[in-house]
Amino acid sequence: MPGKTSHERRALDGLSALLTGRFEEAGFDFISPDILQPADVFLDRSGEDIRSRTFVFTDPEGREQCLRPDLTVPACRFHLSHVADPQAEAQYCYAGPAFRYQPGKHPQEFHQTGMEWFGAGDAEAAEAQILATTLAAVKAAGLKDYTVRIGDLGLFHALLSSLDMPERWRRRLQHHFWRPRAFRALLQILTGAAKRPRTSISGLVDELENGDTALALELVTTELDARQLELVGGRTMDEIAVRLAEKAADRIETPLGAEDSATIDEYLAIRGAPDAAAVQVGKLAGAVGGTMTGAAASLNRRLELFGSNGLNTTGFEFAAVFGRSLEYYTGFVFQIEVTGSKGGALTIAGGGRYDNMLSDIGAGDKVPAVGCAIYTERLLDALGGGA
């Protein structure tokens, strides 16, 4: 896509300044995270969609670097490099380019304006304020016709934690949440409704009678030596052995009960106005118990705080299956959408909670984190100010 004209650049800069001005008025400090980032942070933690579209290169010292595909991770790294205690509460906002490979006529370089809130003690209050501040900013820019989709990955995780299954199955189901077909296929296997497919390591699994990781490691080592193979990227030897042992353990595990499978399906089918959806979630939590009860209470409190932050949820939609393409989200998620030129939904802004990110990149313990990003050029187009 050709570069922007001076008029388009002024319009984009003006919109960005308006948005960040609103964020700063709400108490968020403006920062400028580095454009150049270590590639492994994004490749390991941002999900398959972003990994496949990140511009990666090797610098003269042999280190893998990338152009930032979003600004959330760079903001996290900024926080870790500028505070003595990662748990310290901090609110940041930013504006600038991000870079992703996008086939067709979509830009490879695009502009994001956003904010991140680290270390907030009241999770639901911070989430409500982030959404309220985001909506106030886009409305101040002139956006009138939009819809808001919300979800909560924490509810899904709590549901799985409340059902009787091995922890490894919970990890796999959570991993495939973003992949509906793979998720459905896995659920069919876990219930025994479908056979486990044969893979390249099935022969080794046949030699294991249980989930003995030490024996699995011995088998993997022997197999690689016999074939004179070396590990190239991907999983380590220990990780392969653990996966092998888990597959062996799965063969003798009691299948997931039909009732539990139906409960998962019942939850994933919940969709509609937030208040009505919360009633359905509450009923399901009452039947399931466990950590699902607390997660349902968190949903109700968040909706109450929406109201106290001046949000009218008429026109909002809650969907249990709604997640975000970036796989680092752990709880509340949202998107602000408009109708695109071809009639489909176009995402103007989105964000949510991602409590694992800072600990994953060096903070030590988990740090509460929630934020949002506005796709500034899309917003400008929706306002009629684009090219």
Give the helices and strands, then pairings:
Elements: H1 6-25, E1 29-30, E2 36-38, H2 39-45, H3 48-51, E3 56-58, E4 64-67, H4 72-82, E5 90-99, E6 109-118, H5 123-140, E7 147-152, H6 153-162, H7 167-175, H8 180-190, H9 202-206, H10 213-227, H11 237-252, H12 258-268, E8 271-272, H13 274-288, H14 291-308, E9 316-319, E10 332-339, E11 345-353, H15 357-363, E12 369-375, H16 376-382
Parallel strand pairs: 1-5, 7-9
Antiparallel strand pairs: 2-4, 3-4, 5-6, 6-12, 7-10, 8-9, 10-11, 11-12
Structure summary:
With 387 residues, this protein is α+β, with helices and mostly antiparallel strands. It has 16 helices and twelve strands.
Describe this structure in words.
It is a single chain. The protein has two domains: 6-159 and 264-382, BirA Bifunctional Protein, domain 2 (2-Layer Sandwich), CATH 3.30.930.10; 170-252, no CATH class. The protein is 48% helix and 18% strand. The protein contains 16 helices and twelve strands. The longest helix has 20 residues, at 6-25. It is globular, with a radius of gyration of 23 Å.
